[in-house]
Amino acid sequence: MEWVKRKIRRVLDLFGRVKLVTVYAWICMISFAIFVGAWYFSNQIAGKSIRNEYEDYNEALFDQTVSDINRGIFDLVQLSYTIMSSESLNEFLTAKNFGERNSALSGVQYEFNRLKTIRNDIKAIVLYDNEGKMMANTGITIPSELYSTVNNGSSISFSGIYHIENNDYFQVIVPLYLVEKSVVKEKNGCCSLLVSLDFLEQRLPDVVRSGEQWCAIIDGDSQIILEKGDRPSYLPTKSQWFSMDEEADEASFIYIEKFDKAKWKILFSIPQNTVFRDINTIQRINLMTYLVTGMLIFVLFLGIYASFLRPVKRQIAFMNYYAINRKSRMKVLSDNEMGILAKNLNEMLDELDHLNDENIQASKKILEVEYQKKQSELLAYRNQINPHFLYNTFECIRGMALYYEVPDIAAISESLASFFTYNVRGKGYAQIRVICQHIEDYASIIGYRFMNQYQIVYHADEDAMECIFPKMVIQPLLENAIFHGLETIESDGIVQVEIKKKGQKLIILVADNGHGMDQATLDAMNTRLKEYDRTNLLPIEKHGIGMVNIYRRLRLFYGEDLAFSVESEIGVGTRIKICVPSEANIREDEYVSGIFN
Q1: Transmembrane ranges (predicted)?
Q2: Under a CB-based contact definition with an 8 Å cutoff, are residues 156 and 173 in contact?
Q3: What is the DSSP letter of 223?
Q4: C-alpha to C-alpha distance for 58 and 254, rounded to whole angstroms
């Protein structure tokens, strides 16, 4: 420890040899370097953070869009399976004559209406036979040229885009098979669902609809089914769209996903300049903030130089010149501390000149002797400040407060005087009656200090008032309860002290409704108490009077007759119970001075 102190003193001595202006210059340069470095790294971190967040947001948005479209396609496929298993449609297509077909028509109409009710974006349903001839339809009128596009494949298929009456649609073509006794035999036709592009458009995210980004759904022939936003200039020819990858352009974020069931592909392009625009805005704000802060710091350093360093340099120059011309005086330029110092310096020089004029040699010796004498007396008085002086000072403050009708200051001065007298006078123990008065004084001080936010409530049985108990035990417990228990809670806190005599035992309870301790902290405290009982060694306490010190003091007075327990719970508070003999035989030599006071 001494080695560390010597090193610290050596470093301080080295700094003490450096000129103040040099230290100031180094502080300015280091502050400037830290300031510029903080600005640079904050810009880099902010830019990287925004870019990462933007990429994560775009990926999540794209994944959600793909998921929504896949869910919609899955719904259409499930609906198609319902059509494939429809007995009404199979009966209609396998009818051998007009009468059978006419009787089955009502079932077909029912199926069509049911499908349109399930999905209101299905605008037309057309039923075809194996030869591609339209057998039944419902919904909007479909142009005849659309009939030839019906796929005669064996599985559910999705078409490209069709323009009908200024609206856009796509087809879902469902093959129909003859099913007998759960056995699929032969294909006997197909069903075409004409679906509005609203089905896809409502699943695109709002940011794409705003036009700042570009999103397109294309079919296997690279034909656009649906397009939103401004089409980027970097796109290749349409024939290459379906084979594009996510590395097509470095100036944009490109996301691509295929829909296997529909044989479609979604392209999602977001220009990176939208990210850099946000980053540049934040960097400009950051730069302006740092510039304003830098200007304020510059003004602060300038003020320090003008109000402190410059006057110090002037005083150094004056002292050097004063050695040549003792009649010179320093010019007072301001009314601040440095100006007052210059004024006092001039007054001192005037007084010295006056004394030198009377008797240079004799007066100089007398003044030196008197100066040394007064310095010694001042040091002696300073070292002789004793409790009696402080007590009289508190009483003087109280008297002045009463004279000037300031009862609050008078009351707290009286409490402080009584509190101080209790701690420094007398023996290390006192009657419970005196201790209660001390608790009341301490409660008054705490009330003034914390604006009555915390209350100390005590109760002592009358038959316990004459019992003897050590000083500086209850008050440290109260202090610990306030500063470690109540200061961490938002509501008003209460510390309760209860003193009672039960048989031959004196019982003292100190409880608060503060934050409390968790089980680990409580166990650690009890372990320290047990460790003291085992070794009689005190642990190192960082602040104030620790619980082990209080426990030690009680052990010195009562030995094995002491019962000491601590209970605590988070959110409930802490409760300390002390049980000692009520008729303790305390002698003068049992008090060890300096333990607490």
Answers
A1: 21-41, 287-309
A2: yes
A3: -
A4: 10
Average pLDDT over residues 553-575: 88
- Asked whether residue 577 carries a pLDDT value surpassing 90, the answer given is yes
Residue 363: φ, ψ to 5°: -65, -35
Give the chain's mean pLDDT.
76
Sheet with 157-164: list strands edge to edge.
Answer: 134-139, 122-128, 183-196, 167-180, 157-164
* CA atoms of 371 and 358, how far apart (whole Å): 18
**Where are the CATH 3.30.565.10 domain residues in the chain?**
439-590
On the CB side of 522, CA atoms within 13 Å amount to: 15
Q: What is the DSSP string of 412-457?
A: HHHHHHHHHHHHHSS-SEEEHHHHHHHHHHHHHHHHHHTTT-EEEE
CA distances from 338 to 128, 309, 333, 391 (A): 104, 10, 9, 37
The answer for residues whose C-beta is within 8 angstroms of residue 216's C-beta and 6 or more apart is 224, 225, 226, 227, 228, 231, 241, 266, 267
The one-letter code for the residue type at 482 is I
Percent of the chain surpassing pLDDT 90: 7
- All CATH 3.30.450.20 domain ranges of the chain, comma separated, are 59-271
Q: Side-chain half-sphere of 159: how many Cα atoms within 13 Å?
A: 24
The CATH architecture to which 59-271 belongs is 2-Layer Sandwich (3.30)
* Whole-angstrom distance, CA of residue 454 vs CA of residue 451: 8
* Superfamily grouping for domain 439-590: Histidine kinase-like ATPase, C-terminal domain (3.30.565.10)
